[in-house]
Write a structure and sequence with these properties.
- Helix content is 62%, strand content 7%.
- With 756 residues, the chain is α/β, with parallel strands linked by helices.
- A hairpin with a 4-residue loop joins strand 4 and strand 5.
- The strands form four sheets. The protein has a six-stranded mixed beta sheet with strand order 4-5-3-6-7-8, sandwiched between helices.
- Its EC number is 2.3.1.45.
């Protein structure tokens, strides 16, 4: 990537993804809604000056502001548009030739008495070719006229945005007899003259007329669909209008998925402090490594000549080794975070929009499933949802979700509904796993809670600091964190009911069921009382964690979408562990889970239920309606999958080590994809190698997976240091962490104040 202004790429280069989606070179284009267009152009005056092609662009542009506008009025006259609600004026001025009349109009804007338009879009040539029958004299006159206009446009460009639209090619076979003299050869000659003359006298880069040449590329692909061979089809005009909107509005609105024309965001105070911290960690690690190496050389063991045995050095430095591990972890993390920043905050690597096709989603899915089957091994234990099996489950689900994200498959509703089940299955495992641990172990100590919270949140907290993003932006981590705390609170609150206590008296089982019923009641109440939910999470400092774009609606929506599935996971764990305790299921190697008859019936019901849900999800027509039903019915497919995977003994006794490996780093994969595999906060795709999309995905995926694996190891190493088992030491660490977050909140408040 050569760097430079991405606006130049947006105005001059790109390609089509499919038939209608335009992809600018090196950057992402935002699709502006009417409300966004109005907010950007409020109190602005825009002028389109030129021929019928410019008139077409004018209509496409004002339809971005008001889609109800109809193309009517005098075709060979001026057309005025005004949106009074936003005080936007957009005028089309009919000047089909670059001549003295056009020059006079442009000159009037350069004089002090007349208000200058904020945006000027000009262009003309085909009328000159037509009227003068394509003569060379007309081209010569065009050059003279545009030479006289160029200084005026450059003068306007000092205070306004000025665009000169190059002439699109024509489809000569469709041209009427009166237009046959308009050939692509003539158009190219006029375009070359315009490019050569415009900006020839301007030395100031900010006072340049922007040449809108991308329309020519778009027309080359679509002009054959033109009705008359001269004017572009509507979809191409709309693309040109959207490009114009991106060129002007991206630097104002700063949309996440509109990286074109956006400057690199300045470093915040917190980011600068993080940079200093990681730099000091790297320097500290290098110093300690040198000291450690020198000590090692001085105390290098030598051989005892009498006994022939090696003498060990007497000096032991556990504190230094712990400090060295801490600094080494932060050193690696600092380098990794630098890569994160360069990928998704600096304008160093290219970003592209996603484009969904069925093949881009389903072919990689088939490929990874085949790979997963290749790496089949025997499990160490054959219990239901044993560790290898849950890692495998997390692994293949995570890979499917990654493919779903990079392929842009969220636009295809049946795929979206199935992916929602996979996210629900993760939360189901959260309920199942944490309930099982607390029920069996009865360990409600602070150490366990801190370990889980640290492992879940460490990477996200670092990314919030380095990437300047709110905690709620990484929505899945807040979701599993809050659900873990809900599970903990449900079981830890008096009376603490665990398996050991319940085995002594069966009534405790009913006590636990009563707790679960109370939990379900609370979930039901909060899901239908948005006001109460928002009040709970709007209190400071909770609001700092759960607000996104100034409110907690996104958090409420995410929580509500899978509100029952964690409860289902807890209930399943309770029933399964009760059946296991009373020896009502058989978990021997190769044995079916129940008797042959019961196993066959349950297996048949599970397969039918699984397929029924898939048919229902595939027939969804409305995302909102399906999302309303999803929390209640997603558990059907999850339970069906668990039974299909565990009832046959031979299926329960094997697992895919390929999927299980990815399952162990599934959380890191889910979070890291935001910035170093996808781009623009998941809205686009990171491009490390332009022009080779498949090779680019291979390279970026390899780096992405390696980084996720490395971060998993760093998190595990730091968890042992930051969260010690000794309670007094742990309390001191917790006070330090509380101080750290207090400082973070203070600096965050300072940042917000400076931004406002």
């Amino acid at each position: 990537f050569k760097g430079g202004d991405t606006c130049e790429y947006l105005l001059s280069s790109g390609r089509f993804l499919g038939e209608k989606v335009w992809q600018p070179h090196s950057c992402m284009m935002h699709k502006y809604k009417n409300s966004e267009a109005k907010n950007c152009l409020i109190d602005k005056h825009i002028v389109f000056i030129g021929d019928s092609r410019i008139r077409q662009l004018f209509y496409s542009f004002i339809k971005l502001i008001n889609p109800q506008v109809k193309e009517e009025g005098n075709k060979h006259g001026n057309i005025l548009f005004e949106d009074k609600s936003a005080s936007i004026k957009v005028d089309f001025l009919w000047y089909p030739e670059v001549n003295g009349s056009m020059r006079q109009r442009i000159k009037s804007w350069t004089e002090g008495s007349v208000a200058k338009p904020h945006i000027i879009v000009a262009g003309a040539a085909t009328w000159s070719i037509k009227i003068h029958n394509g003569s060379n004299e007309a081209l010569t006159q065009y050059k003279i006229n545009i030479t006289s206009i160029a200084p005026l446009l450059e003068k306007l460009a000092k205070s306004s945005d000025v665009y000169w639209v190059l002439q699109d090619p024509v489809y000569e076979d469709l041209l009427s007899e009166s237009r046959k003299m308009i050939t692509n050869e003539k158009i190219d000659a006029y375009n070359e003259a315009a490019i050569r003359i415009l900006n020839s006298s301007s030395r100031n880069s900010k006072a340049k007329v922007k040449v809108f040449s991308v329309s020519k590329l778009i027309a080359q692909e679509t002009i054959m669909k033109s009705a008359d061979g001269l004017h572009l089809p509507e979809s191409s005009r709309d693309t040109n209008a959207m490009i114009l909107m991106n060129v002007y509005c991206n630097k104002i609105m700063k949309p996440v998925d509109g990286s074109c024309c956006q400057p690199q965001p300045p470093l915040t105070l917190i980011q600068k402090l993080a940079f200093c911290f990681f730099t000091l960690s790297i320097i500290g690690y290098l110093i300690i490594s040198l000291i450690h190496r020198n000590n090692y050389r001085k105390n290098k063991s030598c051989t005892d000549l009498e006994s022939g045995e090696e003498k060990k050095p007497a000096i032991s430095t556990p504190n230094v080794s712990t400090l060295e591990m801490l600094l080494y972890s932060f050193c690696k993390l600092g380098l990794i975070m630098t890569y994160f920043y360069l990928c998704d905050r600096a304008n160093l690597f290219m970003k592209e929009n996603k484009f969904y096709t069925h093949s881009s989603f389903f072919i990689p899915i088939i490929y990874i499933l085949v790979l997963g089957v290749f790496y089949t091994e025997n499990t160490k234990e054959t219990k239901v949802l044993n560790r290898e099996q849950t890692d495998e489950w997390k692994g293949w689900m995570q890979l499917v979700i990654l493919i779903y994200h990079i392929s842009g498959a969220s636009t295809f509703l049946p795929v979206y509904m199935h992916i929602r089940v996979l996210v629900a299955a993760y939360l189901f495992q959260t309920g199942y796993g944490h309930f099982s641990y607390f029920w069996i172990k009865g360990d409600f100590g602070v150490y366990r809670v801190c370990q889980v919270l640290f492992r879940l949140n460490f990477l996200v907290v670092v990314l919030c600091i380095v990437m300047d993003r709110p905690y709620q932006f990484y929505y899945f981590v807040p979701l599993v964190t809050v659900w873990f705390m809900i599970i903990y609170a449900t079981l830890a609150i008096w009376p603490q009911i665990v398996q050991k206590k319940a085995n002594g008296n069966c009534l405790w089982h009913f006590g636990l069921l009563l707790k679960l019923i109370c939990l379900l009641t609370c979930i039901y109440f909060l899901s239908y009382s948005q006001g109460a939910f928002e009040k709970i999470f709007s209190f400071w400092p909770l609001s700092k964690c759960f607000e996104l774009n100034g409110n907690v609606y996104e958090w409420w929506f995410r929580w509500k979408l899978d509100r029952y599935v964690v409860f289902h996971g807890m209930l399943f764990a309770f029933i399964y562990l009760a059946l296991q305790k009373h020896q009502m299921i058989s978990e021997g190697k190769g044995d079916p889970l129940f008797s042959n008859r019961v196993s066959n019936v349950l297996l048949f019901i599970s397969i039918v239920s699984f397929l029924t849900y898939s048919v229902w999800a595939s027939s969804c027509k409305n995302k909102t309606e399906c999302n309303e039903l999803h929390p209640s019915v997603s558990v059907v497919q999850i339970l069906a999958f668990i039974l299909i995977r565990n009832i046959p003994g031979y299926v329960r006794s094997v697992y895919s080590s390929f999927f299980a490996w990815f399952g162990k780093i599934s959380l890191e994969l889910f979070i890291c994809q935001y910035h170093i595999w996808l781009a623009a906060d998941t809205k686009g795709i990171l491009v490390l190698i332009p022009g080779y999309p498949v090779f680019n995905v291979l390279v970026s995926t390899f780096i992405f997976v390696c980084v996720a694996h490395e971060i998993s190891q760093i998190t595990n190493d730091l968890a042992q240091i930051v969260v010690p088992k000794d309670n007094s030491t742990l309390l001191k660490r917790l006070l330090c962490i509380a101080g750290f977050f207090s400082g973070l909140l203070l600096f965050s408040a300072m940042q917000d104040q400076s931004r406002h």
